[in-house]
Amino acid sequence: MMKQLPLLPFLALLPLLLLFSLLTGNSSACTNEGTDVILPCSPSTRENLQNKLFDWKKVGQGGDTQHEVFMYDSAVHYDRHSGQSEQFKGRVSHFQNELKHGNASIFIRKTKVIDSGSYTCVFPHLKPDEEFCIELVVGASPEPSVTILDQTKGWSLLQCLVRGSFPEPLLQWQDSSGNMVPAAEPQVSKTGDRYSVILNTTVTKTDRYQCVATQEEIKHQTKPAHIYVLLNGAASEPSVTILHQTEDGMLLQCLVRGAFPKPLLQWTDSSGNTLNTEEPQVSERGGSYDVILNITVTKTDRYQCVASQEEINHQSKPAHIYVPFNEKIEKLEKTEQRPNTPPADSATYPMISEQLPES
Ligand SMILES: *[C@@H]1O[C@H](CO)[C@@H](O)[C@H](O)[C@H]1NC(C)=O
Ligand SMILES: *[C@@H]1O[C@H](CO)[C@@H](O)[C@H](O)[C@H]1NC(C)=O
Ligand SMILES: *[C@@H]1O[C@H](CO)[C@@H](O)[C@H](O)[C@H]1NC(C)=O
Q1: 0.70 exceeded by pTM
Q2: What whole-number distance in Å separates Cα of residue 173 and Cα of residue 171?
């Protein structure tokens, strides 16, 4: 929890502050592995402890084995003779100058996940209610990793994996809006004191998904791991049509449906010049976009429209349309010998074809 909050260094002191504020009765504390922690203990008598005995023990998470953490006996302590559990060797000390103020707190360096458990501080010369009890949780909070296990056009199977966490983390899949995505039962396994958890989910929509691991007991949530899922969302070739003639020329339309992320449409002429158009008309349904872009053209040319989606680095195949104007039309009409004579004013209408003749 400390590592994940680098911008708030004062929070690194939180576990210690928590300890200081809970000096009587049962209390609890949490810290991150690798950090140092003070376990507080001072009997209400506040008597000088320099020539007394106090003993710190620990009962592990399972409640089974008891460990000797630290014993002070009139200046003799476990650092100087055997008896201390292997796990704590060389990492625990008392505060020599605090003893005369009745302070039997200890300091544990470089905490490990296995240090988690219930600690008691016992004074054999005092009444049992002077015993102190403190619950220590040393957390390990690796970030989850996410992968796509399998994918078809319509769905994608995602996996979120976290290894070596303590306490057991709860994994959750969320969509880009932070809504929870239903997932399968998590698969939890334990190696030593640490948990590994796998959470699969099948999604059917294009989106940016994320997986977060939460450890309630230590009020910790990891940074989310992100994954981008693209389902059917790459814009296909747009469809282009001639809508009708206007006073200014021919009105063409370029249309793409059901694309995600939102595509940008662009009209170009046969020399590759980008043409000015009006604003596109964009509509959204079911998380994907339909976009229409009209253009008015005035010259005989082969025009093309493409859809591009910058976010996914995708550009559709261009759709072409050939628009011939006046002179050509006259020639064509002469050779075609239409059975029905068109009305007089139709002479200005161009012949249109959606495909460019093979060149
Ligand atoms: C005991 O000593 C430690 C180390 O100096 C200190 O952090 C803690 O506040 C002291 N406890 C009390 C009750 O004075
Ligand atoms: C996740 O999906 C893979 C592939 O189908 C499967 O082998 C694995 O057992 C699944 N795991 C869980 C926890 O659902
Ligand atoms: C394109 O032109 C048609 C016909 O004039 C019109 O109905 C439509 O609203 C226009 N669309 C856009 C996006 O300008």
Answers
A1: no
A2: 7
- Taking CA atoms only, the protein residue closest to ligand 3 atom 2 is 294
- Residue 346 resides in a domain: no
Domain presence at residue 48: yes
In Å, what is the CA distance from 67 to each residue of 19, 124, 141, 242? 21, 18, 25, 84
Please tell me the number of the ligand nearest to residue 187's CA: 2
pLDDT tens for 243-281 read 988 888 999 999 998 887 889 999 999 999 999 998 999
Per-residue pLDDT tens digits for 287-319: 678 999 999 999 999 999 999 988 777 889 999
Tell me: do 27 and 115 sit in the same domain.
Answer: yes
Domain extent at residue 268: 239-336
Same domain, 69 and 118: yes
Q: Who lines ligand 2 at CB under 6 A? A: 149, 159, 184, 187, 198, 200
268's enclosing H/E stretch is: strand 264-268
